[in-house]
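Dear colleague,

As promised, here are the two records you asked about, laid out in our usual form so they can be pasted straight into your sheet.

NAME FIELD: protein one
SEQUENCE, THEN STRUCTURE:
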Amino acid sequence: MAFLRIVTLSTNVPFGCFSASPALASRLHTTGQRLHRGRLLQQRFFGLTIRLAKSRGIASPPMASDAFVALLNEQIAHEYAAHQQYVACAVYYDAETLPQLARFFYAQALEERDHAMMMIQYLIDADADVITPGVDAPQVAFADIVAPVALALAQEKRVTEQINALAGCARAEGDYTSEQFMQWFIKEQVEEVATMSDLLRVVERSKDDPMDIENFMARELPDEEGGDPTAPAAAGA
């Protein structure tokens, strides 16, 4: 997620990089949706083919390597832990009567939950085992209004390393379908780290005047409309 975003074909471009007419933006959005549907159909086709062959007793190579499946199940736990941590950050800001910061972190929590559900759906489609994880309790006490954002940035950097390791594992295993699946998450993490880095600078600069932060976020980070048409399918969606 970039600090300010507009919808594009396959990536999110920071506000101000170019101006697109409404008609062009609509065409790009439609094309992105078509590409996304094609990729999802391909993913579902692989999963259906594997399950059909299995039901008929026909041996077929797994869609995802065992090493990748094990790592992806671990990542599902990391994504749920990130969800819980962002809920805790949002609750802290809510209790401090900082609704814009709370809104932002509630939305971030939902994004992390959706990431976990995307990974679950991929494992289901790959006819691989899904392990529903338990997670450790998140940090709920913070020294000041800067601390949750600093924690969030550290968390996003850690998740970026985990996502890159997943892509590296898929490539090392010759699991190119799984490597392709991870490309969206790699792009997403670049944006997540950029967002938290920018937000941390804003919060550090205005920590003594929280209303400046609130006004900034209301102006520069409005609620997003619609989802990313290039995102993988999420289980239960």
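NAME FIELD: protein two
SEQUENCE, THEN STRUCTURE:
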Amino acid sequence: MVLLQASGIRKSYGQLAVLKGIDLEINRGEIVAIVGASGAGKSTLLHVLGTLDTPDHGKVLIENKDVFAQSSKKLAAFRNHSIGFVFQFHFLLPEFTALQNVMIPAEKLGKYTKSEIEDRAYEKLKWLGMHEFAGKLSSKLSGGQQQRVAIARALINDPTIIMGDEPTGNLDSTNTNIVFDMLKDLSKSKGQTIISVTHDEEFALKSDRVIEMKDGQIIKQ
């Protein structure tokens, strides 16, 4: 079942054309890796699909909804509810504990009480094997631990799609495998869709589908 459909996506910055007419369909529960050389347009495509950036031309449909046809306020609410992001750099707040960092998107969502948000955050940390560090400052955690906290934060609102921009870029092979296995478990057990930009060949090969980009276009998938 198609979850996300992009058609005719074009994006330029000044005179530089970064995306040159992208057509793409991604199914529910699929793990998709986007690969290509630096400057191929991978991150820009991910940001457009994740509604962090707006295309100059084209449409992005998620669950048959034209996401960019909404007001900016509704789009922000949709993004917070339906899409979780995991970046190469975890972007945790160093003065916050692991638990407090995970709670932030749910607090913005405004759907749950404070105690419910704490319970949900702890549950996500426990699933990722990080509950013992819930009260520890994020700045005191190792790189692999920080990235798992970042994944828990991305999961707090049970998003339909999890988007990763080099989510294992700063991790060693052991932690890379741990993170991938966790993402795979999410896609298989909960039907969540994973879309990730990566330079990690092993990560890409273990994905359900690899989309290769070059010069702002998809050249192979």
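A couple of things worth noting about protein two: The first strand starts at residue 2 and ends at 13. The chain has a mean pLDDT of 91.

Best,
R.
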